Amino acid sequence: MKNINLLRCFIFLVTVLFLGGCKTSEQRKAERTERFGFHFKGKRQKYAKIPFELSSNLMIVKVSIDESDTLNFILDTGVTSTIITDPEIANKIGLNYVRDVLVSGAGEGDSIVASISIGHTLRLSNEIVARGQNIVVINDDILNLSQYLGIPVHGIFGHDIFAAFVVTMDFENKMLYVSNPESFKFKRYHGKKYPIVVTKSKPYTEAISLVSNGKSQPMKLVIDTGAGHALMLNATGSQEIVSLPEKVIRANLGRGLNGDINGHLGRVNKIKLGNIEIENILASFPDSISFSMKFPPTDYDRQGSIGCELLRRFRVTLNYRENYMALKPVRIRIKESFEHDMSGLEIRAEGEGLNRYFIKSVDNYSPAALAGVKEHDELVFLNDRNVSNMKIGDIARILSQKEGKSIEVFVRRDGTLQFFYFTLKRFI
Question: Are the folds of 188-334 and 345-423 the same?
């Protein structure tokens, strides 16, 4: 199954900066008497553990807005505003809007309309709270994140958490360790420090170098927890860091706020991070029309980004106050190969419980296509397992696990079950 290489949104909400005049005198008075922004609920609290779910390399955190039920939000280092991507949830919460704005982001389409609601309280695991928060609501759920990830996803947030705390991301135990910056003490078990710079709410690092012909070339990369890819590089435009590899495949790299992000997938021979060398890394090369051309002027010098397919191989600590990230390699993960789908299937989750899986597309001449699997088939059994008891990430891992692996599927087509058999083949 094709990986979700990019669910990055690149929100450029300049208009939101002018919302201060929309607040009532009562709201402004309340904000002066309450702590604004994200902070621990307990006045003397210095530390909290926040569990997350990992789906298609994206961290899903439980969030509540005002008195709402628990919602699922993607934790994204680069998103400045709290964004609700599911307008039905916004209606259930009963948000009141003060104005509409145009939002521009990655993707080949035009800007979209979003609405602004102000003065809300956000809570994480009843330990972290933020009051007086503005919320951006996308008027149409164009991202369809729930279908991609196989679990309900209601929104995206992130920058303010990393700006307020020191955050350690433990991908193995699916836990965020959130610390007060004033009391946080760096220890050896956090790993090795690498400098970062936070500019326009995005963390950048030049700690990763591209190794070619025995020479190392530093790269300026965004640290992007809202992306499922390992490495994304510019192969066109003024900030071209590397030419396209000799062997690439054309691919849909994911979706941004303005539609599909298309480009190529290829392999980079080696990158270097301190004394760690990682070989044969899978990299995404987006078309400039859907990506780099959408950057604001302050972002033009970026040469790419690293996402959670690479970050999950480390225990990652981000300390914005002291401008560093710390990385501790996870032995069992650091040597894992970087793989892409080997079946040719693109699958989406549907149904009330998001536990019915349908074939959205089948690549021509792929193993699944040659076996007879077709678009719109419903996947019922995968290697003797009922997929209704599986997560979409489990299905993705099976279909990208090992070249030559035998795959047996039962699909439902026109009300009847049909059986197909094929073996996985590495495309890139």
Answer: no
CATH superfamily, domain 345-423, is PDZ domain (2.30.42.10)
pLDDT (tens digit, 0 to 9) for every residue of the chain, 428 residues total? 654 444 433 333 332 333 333 444 554 444 444 567 899 988 889 999 999 999 999 999 999 999 899 999 999 998 888 999 999 999 999 899 999 988 776 666 677 889 999 999 999 988 999 999 999 999 888 788 899 899 999 999 999 999 999 999 999 999 999 999 999 999 999 999 999 999 989 999 999 999 988 888 899 999 999 999 999 998 655 555 667 888 999 888 877 777 778 889 999 999 999 889 999 999 999 887 655 544 554 555 778 999 999 999 999 999 999 999 999 999 999 989 999 999 999 999 999 889 999 999 999 999 999 999 999 999 999 999 999 999 999 999 999 989 999 999 999 999 999 999 999 999 99
10 Å CB burial of residue 192 (0-12, 13-18, 19+) is middle
Its CATH class, for the domain covering 188-334, is mainly beta
Q: CB under 8 Å to 122, separation ≥6 — which residues?
A: 38, 63, 64, 65, 82, 129, 130, 133, 157
Quick check: 373 and 357 in contact, CB under 8 A?
A: no
Asked if 19 and 267 touch (Cβ cutoff 8 Å), the reply is no
Q: What is the DSSP letter of 246?
A: S
pTM: 0.88
Contacts of 190 (CB under 8 A, 6+ apart): 168, 315, 317, 326, 328
What does DSSP say about strands 71-76 and 356-362: parallel, antiparallel, or unpaired? unpaired
- Per-domain boundaries in the chain: 14-179, 188-334, 345-423
CA 104 to chain centre: 18
Write the CATH number of the domain with boundaries 14-179.
2.40.70.10
At 148 the three-state DSSP class reads: helix
Give the C-alpha separation, 355 to 371, whole Å. 24
